[in-house]
Sequence to fold (247 residues):
Amino acid sequence: MPEPEPHLSLVVPALNEAQRLARSIPRIRAVLDALDLPGPHEVVVVDDGSEDGTADRARELLRGARHEVVSLPSNRGKGRALKEGMLRARGRVRLFTDADLSTPVEILPRFLAAHRAGFDVVIASRKRPGARVERRQPLLRESMGKIFTFLSALLLVSGVSDFTCGFKSFTGPAADALFGGLRLEDWSYDTEILWRARRLGLRIREVPVRWRDDPSTRVHRLRDTVTSLTGLGRLLLLRHGLSGDPR
Fold:
């Protein structure tokens, strides 16, 4: 008898996260096991070319038929890791979270409720009323993030308050459509995904969340912010049909 399709897939991109996964995966599994879902769930970890045994640690922590570890041969960027994971996932709902769980995974039921209400894309917001930032980012990173969000909303996707929070969920068809066409592999992938969602007429919902910066984050704050701004420029070229974006 064939294995039933998962109702929920949770995707975790990971770069040199062996130690952090030892804390986050048991917490993720406990939350998923406690949910009253109409079908099974799965966890998909994507190792983005790690050098610290991330893939092996993930396999140890995810023993079970419905879980999977995908290993990329070299570091390709968070956007590429998520593309691989979201397209490999099989769930009717597919959610990704950062390995540090800066957004508590316990908020997941609110995202599932938004999908039941008919939303195709549900994103965490640290800026909507009801959100709470318990530990802020360093001033430079926070300021650059605000500039990126301002430009993304002004130039590409109006009405979105938070592009870069690493906790977003999609229906299966939305994930296939959005990540299947993803072009940007760096940190600007968030804006491309939401831009594509708006172009396709998908319904987007923002959910205010509690969030805490992890000071040991793998983000290279200034470098990755500059890369994201460069990616934003590339996305503007895509919007105007100047980069060979397939139609």
